[in-house]
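Progress against Task 2.4 (sequence-to-structure conversion) is shown through the following example record, which the project officer requested during the mid-term review.
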Amino acid sequence: MGFFDKIKAGLTKTRDALNSTLGSVFTGFSEIDDDFYDELEESLILADLGVETSTKAVERLRKAVREQHLKTPEEAKTALKEILTDMLNVGDTALNLATTPSVILVIGVNGVGKTTTIGKLAKQLTDQGKKVLMVAGDTFRAAAADQLEIWAGRSGAAIVRQHEGADPASVVYDGIQAAKARNVDVILIDTAGRLHNKTNLMNELNKISRIVERELPQAAKEVLLVLDGTTGQNGLVQARQFKEIAGVTAIALTKLDGTAKGGIVIAVADALQIPVKFVGVGEQADDLMGFVARDFVEALI
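Structure tokens generated for the chain above:
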């Protein structure tokens, strides 16, 4: 099953919610007037695009309707798809793995599916023939390293871990030395996600980043923020905070199959101008998929 089919299946709840509102906008109006725009904006907000992104999308649609002399809601629908696709295209959706080793620092609050995302990524990368090392930098949650250990077994990736409560930066240092010695292609680093204790988290992430920078100054680096799609606008709040703390370069949105709020993908990409590089729509390793904006919008609307 390709990205389009999988994402279409995964977005069923969002699409059903959208169709009950958006569908009636495009079929219930015979012309494009102010009522049409008001209904459309409300539908987009309900799909969790957020007020700001929904308003921007509708303003851009008004302009397109004027400039392209569009007459029917069906024509407006086609134009809206183009606008939403454009709003999602805010950067390269492929991971930057240009060096050996490359580093992916994975961040996000506890419970979003961070460790599982790392495991799925490890499996995909090893299947591509890459040598992968996972670093269990979340030393505050005993289960995190154990979970990674299980994924290491499934994926064939190596793992570096220490005892619970160890200094995360020291685990990362050990991991980098092991990666250099073993000629690893990709280092995947798990981190703690206690956002309520922002100062400590910021210090920790800074320390980890400094070690990566010092030990691997030339390496290609990604800071991948994992967000839980079911949290809707709350995910956007988290994303803003992490962008401020950690210089996020990419986003993975998980659990989209369990939510009617899949529009959050567009809100996050548009508000932060950071590309969504992965979406998760299930439990299997291949249910974490590389993101394709046009297919996503087609599956959504």
